[in-house]
Amino acid sequence: MTSASGPVGTVEVALNHTARLLASDPASAAEQATEILKVVPEHPHAALLLGVARRRMGEVPAAVEILSALVAKHPNAAAAHYELGLALGADHKGDAAVAALRRALELKPDMGEAWRALGDHLTAIGDAQGADEAYARHIKYSTRDPRLMEAGSALVENRIAVAEALLREHLKQFPTDVVAIRMLAEVAARLGRHEDAENLLQRCLELAPTFLAARHNLAQVLYRENKALEALAELERLLIAD
């Protein structure tokens, strides 16, 4: 998307402020985006932020309307298709949501969050193989997620409490993020909570059976729990996959 003309400095400052408001106060973000659109009608970034804010406020039909209009005018805007996919999913329009997410990923294949959202929808409709493939792509691109990078740094530096807090907060918002689940399992393992680690890794593999690093971790945790037969079974699966 390219920005519409206008007082660039003032508009950019307002857009940045609106984006910051989204997480904590979507209603204020919606008001700010609406004011920007009064000054610069049809500004694509402002329209995108307004659509996101409406969805987060629970005004899902309004969000779908705003974002549908946006992708009609900017058909090659990956972020707009992604947000439309989320809004359609919230509106219980699963097939349309999958189509929007697939379009976003055609335009920008490295959108890790879009792969995870697609995996969630494919899981919901019973397409286990498709979901596994989507989660695998999410794993590939998740290394660029700054939220997980911060938690990863805390793990490397052995700041376990910080890592756990960051990961739990992240998973409240994204409960199917298999990379974060695996990292939280590592936290549990380091704290000696092996049963918790096992349950987390089992959940990982339920979502993404081809997540081999998680399967390797599971084999280790099972061995530490003196579950030798179960550990061997996981190792056999790894050998088959190798």
Structure characteristics:
242 residues; mainly alpha; 14 helices; elongated; disordered N terminus
Give a written overview of the molecule.
The chain has 242 residues and is mainly alpha-helical. 79% of the residues lie in helices and 0% in strands. It has 14 helices and no strands. It has helices at 8-24, 26-39, 44-56, 60-73, 78-90, 94-107, 112-124, 128-141, 146-156, 160-173, 178-190, 194-207, 212-224, 228-241.
Topology summary:
Layout: H1 8-24, H2 26-39, H3 44-56, H4 60-73, H5 78-90, H6 94-107, H7 112-124, H8 128-141, H9 146-156, H10 160-173, H11 178-190, H12 194-207, H13 212-224, H14 228-241
Offer a quick outline of the entry.
The chain is mostly helical.
Shape: elongated
**Low-pLDDT sequence parts:** 2-6
Q: Span from first to last CA?
A: 42 Å
Portion of residues in beta strands equals: under 5%
Sheet bearing the most strands, described? none
